[in-house]
Model the fold of this input.
Amino acid sequence: MRIAHWRKADARVGLVPTMGALHRGHIALVRFARTECDRVAASIFVNPKQFAPTEDLGSYPRREAADLEMLQSSGTDLVFIPTVDEMYPPGFATLVQVHGLTEGLCGAHRAGHFDGVTTVVAKLLIQTLPDIAYFGEKDYQQLMVVRRLVRDLDIPVHVAGIPTVRDGDGLALSSRNAYLSLGERRIAPNLAQVLRSVASALARHPGAVANELARGLRELRDAGFEVDYLEVREEDTLRPVTTYVGARSRVFGAVQLGKTRLIDNMPIG
Ligand code: AMP
Done:
């Protein structure tokens, strides 16, 4: 395999795992990897195990030709596009499960989601054994879960977290933004705006968690979202913060807008 060859030649290898339908957020991970690594590989795999039966696996955007072009022009050396059968051949029977960190936030709303993520990420990391694997802070809980996975299973890979890339109006880039109608696209930036406003209020008034979350919830609903959750959590442990912001923390939100689920988070201070 090409990566093993690179490793033998002492090249530092970066891996950017994705589900395709790439945007500037994914490309930021590739560009960051380029600055730290001699070789950069990306994977594209829409992982069926991380979608619940009620979710959007069937309609998830797939744009392989455009993805390959974007990866090539941003300096990706190798693109790995396994099939579902290659990743999960008949008889596949293993589940990689991280406890604790996966139980709240998206874990509480997407049954089995993180088990699918950790199973596929463990496989991708073991298959490619990069020096550094790059993940976005946009999916902050996922980043923390992957860090835990790598530590617990002694997978010899460093996990790097990259800040969220946004559109000019603040909306975090996401492959799922492609589902938004024009009207919904105008509403969508309110998620980032509310999270930012709660985060900046809590930086000034760290004891106002309950009030600020109540205000944020009201504002999200008034904007037209159905709210899955709006919470403050400690950045390192994801422990819930319900009264006073002491340790470094973030505001996390997940909403439904029509058929589209959007998530985002903002650091406090
Ligand atoms: P996905 O294709 O949605 O599974 O995302 C692949 C990787 O890109 C994950 O590590 C995501 O956290 C990251 N990512 C997705 N959107 C963004 C964004 N707007 N900014 C930074 N990273 C992102």
Q: What stands out?
A: The chain has a mean pLDDT of 97. Strands lie at 13-18, 39-44, 78-80, 132-136, 158-162, 226-234, 249-257, 260-267. Residues 18-19, 25-26, 28-29, 135-136, 138-139, 162, 164-165, 172-175 surround adenosine monophosphate (CB under 6 Å).
